[in-house]
Amino acid sequence: MQPAEGPRRRAVDGGVLNFLSVSQLKQFSLCPRRWYFVKVLRLPEPETKAQALGVEGHAQLEHYLRTGEDVLGDVARAGRHLLPAPGADLLVEESFGTPSPLSADGVPFIGHIDLINPRRLAEGVLRVTDHKFSSNVGRYAATPAQLVDANTEAGLQMVGYGVWAALSDARFPGVRVLELEHLYFQTRGARRAASVLASVSVEHVSREWTQKVVPMVRRMREVARATRTADAPPNFGACEKYGGCPFKAQCLSGERTMSLLNRFVPKLQSPDTAAQLPLSAPPQATAPEALGTCDRCGASLTSENTSKLRSGEVLHVSCPGAEVAAVLPPDAPAASPTIATEVAPKRRGRKPKALNAPVAAPRVEDQEPATSPPATPSPQGERLRLFVDCVPNMPAESLSEYVAKVAAQVSEAGGVADLRFAGAESTLGFGRWKGALSMAIRNAPPVPGAYAALGLAHSELLQLAVEALEPLCGPGDFVRGAR
Q: Are 140 and 50 in contact (CB under 8 A)?
């Protein structure tokens, strides 16, 4: 059960980890950020109906085992045959004591154990039991292997209990074997109970504690010192476990001490913006290699203003006399040799379609609307060039790296781990992150150069970036491949 914390001493105070419990270990392993909300920020956790049932059931079991008086309800009574006979020798709701013998990395542990049965201690065997109330015992019960593995949620608790018992040698002399038990009581449907039992040596639990729990406590120390929610790592895979995390809104929105625009627009519009987001240093100006002249306009052809078609023909991408609609995308891949070329067999009642029907040639969009601003060349004469779903015939950077950096900045400004999953309480919620990302990209475009945006259909971030950057490209500097 979750131990009560005294009003004067908190588990975490001023970033210092004062004490822990095995329940906190379980919570931290499930999601460090949730533990941060509860123990560092001290946000209250609402009691669920399942927790209320568990508290009531534990109270009934405690009274029965201490006094022998049958006050068990229907849920707890289903496991009465699995309980030891009540007696004064049983240790019920046993406290870890003060000072506690159990610690990790110098942090003491507090808590209570539901039941300790020392009736076989003369044989060197001690049974440690934790009562569990579950809606479905068959589905959610742990396995014996999990009870003795500190990498599991169940093992964290039971290994901790076992180490505490092993360290309490004055109370349990001669203990060599620990019987770690989860006693389950089903709260829904048919009333049933089940015992999951694992026997393990004292040396095993001590080794699990040293090798697995002590490093976890060190990580908990680091999270306890965090001053921002973003510094506490989340586990988004646990958001819906155990009825859902009550801190989902705070987790996704974060703390906002100023508006979103005030947080990232000035930063992105600062004079040294180009130094903040470059993927690489601007290329040095070099004389382009001459590839002859264009047959249509007579301009000199270089690697910077050409691209090779799949036919082998060199294309002057900015030629004013080119037939744009008939131009193939640069470096378009050859047709797959695995595509069937035979006509499909005829089918009754419908005319078969020819598999070799001509396909409309893709376009190269080398003309911009009249309202688009002209591209601004860099001091070295370099321009922003964008190749979408096609490979340019020149050195190019991946646009994905630049987009990832801007998205990370906008996410940080909005106080969320990932802007695409911003909650309703966030300034980036309800899809507002799309406008924020587009604005950030327009205010801080990548340094001039050639960029390739590949796999556009599979990345919403890339799609937004391309839409934002297209008006910033000059004539002939925006090339789109086949769709």
A: no
Q: In the structure encoding, which two tokens stand for residue 159, read together?
A: 């290994």
The token pair at 87 is 């007696």
Residue extent(s) of CATH 3.90.320 domains in the chain: 12-253
Per-residue pLDDT tens for 384-426?
Answer: 999 888 877 788 888 988 998 898 888 888 788 888 877 776 7
- CA 32, 34, 39, 41 dihedral sign is positive
Q: Rounded to an integer, what distance in angstroms lies between the CA atom of residue 226 and that of residue 219?
A: 11
- Rounded CA gap, 22 and 13, in Å? 19
From residue 45, alpha-carbon distances to 245, 300, 307 in Å are 9, 71, 62
Q: How far apart (Å, rounded) are the C-alpha atoms in residues 103 and 97?
A: 12
Q: Which of 387, 411, 400 is nearest to 481 (CA)?
A: 387
Q: ∠ CA(96), CA(100), CA(102), 5° rounding?
A: 90
Question: Which residue from 321, 317, 318 is spatially nearest to 331, judged by alpha carbons?
Answer: 317
What CATH class does 12-253 carry? alpha beta
Residue 43 Cα distances to 20, 35, 247, 404, angstroms: 17, 10, 9, 32
